[in-house]
């Protein structure tokens, strides 16, 4: 064992939460190390976690490629653009995705170097006394002593006992690397991953069937938003079946046989590939040695307080391995928060204003409470909505589907939530985030000048509609 190396901060995990924590700590003058085990396709260390390597970034690359292909066959004609039959080179599309991933993983390594973060590549385990033992990829071991240790281990896909991952049954990682368009793709789970990757391969010509266990589509989203999204997905050819409990799978010569029950009884479909995306679990297995004092809950998540402290002196935890939504941007903010708290600065994350986005077509986004949640909480509210079909920019883009809804307190007019479905709403939702962060009212948002023509006018008119004074629709 090499001599113990001393650091002010040791971060375990180089994903969104971990690399933000490491860089911010180093910016604040703290001697910082970050340990990460992931390897890229080339077998070399690849920082960035699930998000950058096999999640957010690569999926958006494929979504954008497949959207271009879809538009050629479904929207370009409206613009008067015609051409011979469009073709897709799946290998080239995947290679583009891989190049983008490599660019960004290398970018984080460069940021570590620029900020003097010491990177270690291998498997880390927290020992009692804030000691981190690292088994590096070359087989050697190093021991790090941190005045503070930040656990940012991330999460892994949940594997079903009757649907083990392999060549034909895959998680999101496998679904990013198909070498050809599967003729039939089955998807278990109509959540973010299922809808996004289902959309990718549906646009490229796959017959996609999505099996969702819950009786309601996108139960976490606003009911009206979910209804509009479901209608658009159906138009695109996605076959989404609700209330389906998958009971077994069998890989045979003719494909993957998927057995499930619904309100009509026992059912079976046969697909060429099956994507399983039924959730993720904290990647805390073997993270903690005995005696650290750090506690895990029944789901394997690290228990922390409101400021991500574990209750053990100098030990913190952030990102997917702690409570709250498993979102990269939530991890970003927690990593920065903890680094600043360690440095003696104020640090805080407002979990009430974390935006949620699903990057389908149309996009789906929201922040704050839904109408259903406000009703359940007994909060009196006002609602205003505005359709993209009445927005000049959306119609000119040939993307008029969807709407924006603003929810405000009935008495104070303070914005309580914003819900959107439509083109580019992943960007528009931040008007709601910022308004809510500053305790803004619907009237505040309604009185802010928005450029014309722009998609953001839907936000403006929805805010005006809260007080029944929208100009471009009947109130």
Automatic annotation (TrEMBL):
Disulfide bonds join 51-56. The gene is lpdA. Keywords: Cytoplasm, Disulfide bond, FAD, Flavoprotein, NAD, Nucleotide-binding, Oxidoreductase, Redox-active center. PROSITE patterns: PYRIDINE_REDOX_1. It comes from Pseudoluteimonas lycopersici. Its EC number is 1.8.1.4. This is Dihydrolipoyl dehydrogenase. One of its GO terms (cellular component) is cytoplasm. The active site is a redox-active disulfide bond. PANTHER family: DIHYDROLIPOYL DEHYDROGENASE, DISULFIDE OXIDOREDUCTASE.
């Amino acid at each position: 064992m090499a001599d113990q190396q001393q650091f002010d901060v040791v971060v375990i995990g180089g994903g969104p939460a971990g690399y933000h924590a490491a860089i911010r700590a180093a910016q604040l003058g703290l001697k910082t190390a970050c340990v990460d085990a992931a390897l890229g396709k080339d077998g070399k260390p690849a920082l960035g976690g699930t998000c950058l390597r096999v999640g957010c970034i690569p999926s958006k690359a494929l979504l954008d490629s497949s959207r271009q292909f879809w538009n050629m066959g479904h929207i370009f004609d409206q613009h008067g653009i015609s051409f011979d039959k469009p073709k897709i080179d799946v290998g080239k599309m995947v290679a583009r995705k891989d190049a983008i991933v490599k660019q960004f993983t290398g970018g984080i390594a460069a940021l570590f170097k620029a900020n003097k973060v010491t990177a270690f590549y291998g498997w880390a385990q927290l020992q009692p006394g804030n000691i981190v033992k690292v088994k590096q990829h070359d087989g050697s071991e190093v021991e790090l002593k941190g005045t503070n240790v930040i656990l940012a281990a991330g999460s892994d896909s949940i594997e079903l006992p009757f649907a083990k991952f392999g060549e034909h049954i895959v998680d999101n990682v496998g679904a990013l690397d198909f070498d050809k368009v599967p003729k039939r793709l089955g998807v278990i789970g109509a959540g973010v991953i299922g809808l996004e990757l289902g959309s990718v391969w549906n646009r490229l010509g796959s017959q996609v069937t999505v099996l969702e266990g819950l009786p309601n589509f996108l139960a976490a989203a606003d009911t009206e938003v979910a209804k509009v999204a479901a209608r658009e997905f159906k138009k695109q050819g996605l076959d989404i079946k609700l209330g389906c409990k998958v009971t077994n799978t069998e890989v045979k010569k003719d494909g993957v046989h998927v057995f499930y029950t619904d309100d009509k009884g026992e059912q079976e479909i046969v697909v060429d590939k099956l994507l399983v995306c039924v959730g993720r679990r904290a990647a805390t297995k073997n993270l903690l040695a005995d005696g650290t004092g750090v506690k895990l809950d029944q789901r394997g998540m690290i228990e922390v307080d409101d400021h991500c402290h574990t209750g053990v002196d100098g030990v913190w935890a952030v990102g997917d391995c702690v409570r709250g939504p498993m979102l990269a941007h939530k991890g970003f903010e927690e990593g920065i928060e903890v680094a600043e708290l360690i440095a003696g600065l104020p640090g805080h994350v407002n979990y009430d204003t974390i935006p949620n986005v699903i990057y389908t077509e149309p996009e789906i986004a929201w922040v704050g409470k839904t109408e259903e949640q406000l009703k359940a909480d007994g909060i009196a509210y006002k609602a205003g909505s505005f359709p993209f079909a009445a927005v000049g920019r959306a119609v000119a883009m040939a993307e008029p589907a969807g709407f924006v809804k603003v929810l405000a307190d009935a008495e104070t007019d303070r914005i309580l939530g914003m819900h959107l479905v439509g083109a580019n709403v992943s960007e528009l939702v931040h008007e709601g985030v910022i308004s809510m962060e500053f305790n803004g009212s619907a009237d505040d948002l309604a009185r802010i000048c928005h450029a014309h023509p722009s998609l953001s006018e839907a936000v403006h008119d929805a805010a005006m509609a809260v007080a029944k004074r929208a100009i471009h629709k009947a109130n």
